[in-house]
């Protein structure tokens, strides 16, 4: 005897009233077993796997990827054995953190390798042209004396290859913005709509700090991590922010309240395969550069691998966003609402600067920053960045109590 079973979106806690359907794992007609993953849904906090509490056959699905489903609304309808049906609706148990599935590496195309014997005979000009064209001279038989390869031989190869003439392309690919990408879009739009940003960029001489960083990496003990620039910037911020508590703050614009935080919980903007995430280094003020480096690596790796906990991804009071060596000259970072400031270090590059009337080469970095002008005045923002500049340019002060 068969019975009808309706699986409804359960209450996943945290006051969630709806969730976005991200990916289906079953189709109508599929036979499934208990605990099999039916669908992934995304709340404001995390992606969650919805597993079936019963064994049966899928007879209907409700919603498509990108649709919003209310808590208590039907997701999947199943046909099950009468003995297995205890009620018509079910609440799924709280699922574990989402599993990250790494796709297999694509098979490498097998290419026969050329057997290289002696170096082919060719003039330097022919060799350079062959290099620019991507032609392997070892695979050619030259028409010149003793098999010497000339420009005519290269021309013959080009005639055999498809035309290098740029080809016209048509077509439009439509990509629906769903899941984490949609959440990112909403947060960015929300931040720009509510926050009147102003950006300030300052040039910082990082030569002494870079020398110190390299020295410490050469002297590091076993088990200590390699130091990047970020731990030093965080330590410098920890020294400066107590003087300007309005920068390390949240602004509740509905209540009209600025919450100034004593603890520095630094968000570290991290690019992942699924989009930008901001894991949090908690209590940066209580960590040294080595501990900061360890914690930055831990939370960033957890975010990239999909293993970051709710604690890892919430509660930041100020954010650092860095593109590392790709950081360019300047950026205009978007504030991570409800925070009121974001810091964006750009690339460190050798530049000629004037010191004591002489042109010298120094390791220079532009530090970009954005502030919420509703609660942070320009004077306070510039004061903060200038104090930060002073500490970074005299890195010994980073280690002073």
Question: Could you give the topology of this structure?
Answer:
Elements: E1 2-8, E2 18-24, E3 31-32, E4 37-42, E5 47-51, E6 56-61, E7 68-70, E8 74-81, H1 124-133, H2 151-160, H3 179-194, E9 197-205, H4 207-219, H5 230-240, E10 249-252, E11 257-260, E12 266-268, E13 270-272, E14 275-277, E15 280-281, H6 289-304, H7 310-313, E16 318-320, E17 341-355, E18 358-372, H8 378-393
Parallel strand pairs: 12-16, 16-17
Antiparallel strand pairs: 1-8, 2-4, 2-7, 3-6, 4-5, 6-8, 9-18, 10-11, 12-15, 13-14, 17-18
Helix pairs in contact: 5-6, 5-8
Structure commentary:
With 401 residues, this protein is an alpha+beta fold. The chain folds into two domains: 83 residues, OB fold (Dihydrolipoamide Acetyltransferase, E2P), CATH 2.40.50; 221 residues, Chloramphenicol Acetyltransferase (2-Layer Sandwich), CATH 3.30.559. Helices cover 24% and strands 26% of the residues. The chain is built from eight helices and 18 strands. The strands form five sheets. It has a six-stranded mixed sheet. A four-stranded antiparallel sheet has the order 1-8-6-3, with no helix packed on it. Strand 17 and strand 18 form a beta hairpin. Helix 5 crosses helix 6 and helix 5 crosses helix 8.
């Amino acid at each position: 005897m068969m019975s009808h079973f309706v699986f409804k979106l359960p209450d996943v806690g945290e006051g969630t009233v709806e969730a976005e359907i991200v990916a289906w794992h079953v189709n109508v007609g599929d036979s499934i077993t208990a605990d099999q993953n039916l669908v992934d849904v995304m709340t404001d906090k995390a992606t969650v796997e919805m597993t079936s509490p019963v064994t049966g056959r899928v007879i209907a699905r409700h919603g498509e990827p990108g649709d919003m489903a209310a808590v208590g609304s039907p997701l999947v309808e199943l046909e099950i054995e009468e003995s297995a049906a205890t009620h018509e609706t079910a609440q799924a148990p709280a699922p574990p953190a989402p599993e990250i599935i790494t796709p297999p590496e694509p098979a490498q195309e097998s290419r026969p390798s050329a057997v290289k014997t002696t170096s082919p005979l060719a003039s330097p000009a022919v060799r350079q042209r062959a290099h620019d064209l991507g032609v392997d001279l070892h695979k050619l038989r030259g028409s010149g004396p003793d098999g010497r390869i000339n420009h005519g031989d290269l021309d013959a190869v080009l005639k055999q290859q498809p035309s290098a003439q740029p080809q016209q392309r048509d077509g439009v690919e439509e990509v629906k913005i769903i899941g984490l990408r949609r959440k990112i879009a909403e947060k960015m739009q929300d931040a720009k709509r509510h926050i009147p940003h102003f950006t300030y960029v300052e040039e910082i001489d990082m030569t002494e700090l870079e020398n110190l960083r390299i020295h410490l990496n050469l002297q590091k003990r076993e088990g200590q991590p390699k130091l990047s620039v970020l731990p030093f910037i965080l330590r410098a911020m920890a020294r400066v922010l107590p003087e300007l508590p309005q920068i390390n703050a949240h602004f509740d614009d509905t209540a009209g309240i600025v919450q100034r935080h004593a603890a520095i919980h630094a968000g570290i903007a991290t690019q992942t395969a699924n989009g930008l995430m901001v894991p949090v280094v908690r209590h940066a003020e209580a960590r040294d550069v080595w501990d900061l480096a360890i914690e930055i690596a831990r939370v960033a790796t957890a975010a990239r691998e999909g293993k970051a906990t709710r604690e890892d991804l919430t509660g930041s009071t100020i954010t650092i966003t860095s593109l590392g060596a790709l950081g360019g000259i300047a950026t205009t970072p978007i504030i991570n609402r409800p925070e009121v400031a974001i810091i964006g270090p750009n690339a460190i590059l050798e530049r000629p600067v004037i010191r004591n009337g002489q042109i010298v080469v120094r390791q220079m970095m532009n530090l970009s920053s954005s502030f919420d002008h509703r609660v942070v005045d320009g004077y306070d923002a510039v004061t903060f960045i200038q104090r930060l500049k002073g500490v970074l340019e005299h890195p010994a002060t980073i280690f002073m109590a």
